[in-house]
Amino acid sequence: MLIGRTEERKKLQSLYQSSKSEFVILYGRRRVGKTYLVREVFKNKFDFNHVGLANATLKEQLLNFNLSLVKFGKKEETIPENWLSAFEELAKLIERKKSKKKVLFIDELPWLDTPKSGFLSAFEHFWNAWASARKDILLIACGSAASWMIKKIINNKGGLHNRISAKIKLHPFSLKECKNYFQRKQFAFNEYQILQLYMVLGGVPFYLDGLDKGLSASQNIDELCFAENGLLKNEFTNLYASLFNNYENHIAIIEALSKKNKGLKREELIKSSGLSNGGGTTTILNELEESGFIQRYFPFSNKIKDALYQLVDPFSLFYFRFIKPNPKTTKGFWELTIDSPKYRSWSGLAFEQLCFSHINQIKSALGISGIQSTVSSWVNDQAQVDLVIDRNDQVVNLFEMKFPIHEYEISKKYADELRNKIAEFKKGTKTKKAVYLSFLTTYGLKENKHSRGLVQNSFDRKVLFL
Q1: First and final C-alpha spacing in the chain
Q2: What range defines the domain where residue 459 resides?
Q3: Quick check: is 125 in a domain?
Q4: Of 129, 151, 169, the domain-final residue
Q5: pLDDT tens column, 66-108
Q6: Model pTM?
Q7: Do residues 142 and 24 make contact, with C-beta atoms less than 8 angstroms apart?
């Protein structure tokens, strides 16, 4: 059964009901459930469905395309000589269909574009000269290779420029959707365990499918990532290789960011990764950001030159902190690690990233969903605030995010540090807005004499599941 994806389903169904032909691009990272979404929405009732072959020649791609044509009703089995002929055959096939709206689903579209194959020009011609001229076609093109999808389709400057009806970027599950998934699958995880799993796996459906309901969250992480034949032990390189051309450069960026919690400016990132300062690096950064692995955000100063890039993909951070440095580990490693200082350092950062990825839920908890606001960070030589929400109702929230296994209690020393942080923020930014200190912790904030009058907002993990 399909979990979440409410807006995506509505969009696809609306395009299906349209009175004209529609061309939809569906993209997102590997394993996020793109194919599953389309098949569930249309229940496999396609007038044509084709999946490209990975690492295949032009001849093999055309043979495979012809097999799909035959499966959906082509009479003669002559293999098309080129892509123009192949799409001509597809047009003839669809013209014989009686459906009110013909649904054409081409999965892993980038794999069809082999070198010097002429695929893209033929695909453009198929849409512009035939499909768009009709009123009864819904063409859904899907692919995980983000660099190709963005460059060749979404930002196309040729025949497909401004021809796309809709682009749907499929994101990993939110915490709420993960919780619904586990309830449907009859897992007994509590919210704290779900947080633990999300901090490692993110909300990637394929990763969640590999979990064993008879194991705890920690045991599952051990089994997936550190067992000899763990499902995700070798996932990292396969993930980036499937998404990007020259993926080694993308990994260099990710590795550089994994070492710097607060993120890096472009110049710092280029120096740390060893890449050149040119258009190629800009393309890599754009592709990683578009694919959801990194984010670019602006400090409270809002100066473009101060923009920071930060790694936000949970699994990539986990890989560089624990899997890569320990290639010979076996099952049991993780359960021995969870009481270590390295674990505590990672879990604090991973929880902060989780909070950033659920910023809309945090705004909802604050009651400011309808108020315009911007999210940033702030730092000077004396203090640092990782999450700043600057609101148009004359309030600025400075957030502290903690991941303890019990209620968090503010000590006198920490209270003094927090007061200094607020003072430094006011002095450094010269803001005239009211500054509210806010806490988001796993089990809430324990009220004591140090928190009273200091903390204006306190939330526990439940707000992240909204």
Answers
A1: 21
A2: 360-465
A3: yes
A4: 169
A5: 999 999 999 888 999 999 999 999 999 999 999 999 999 999 9
A6: 0.92
A7: no
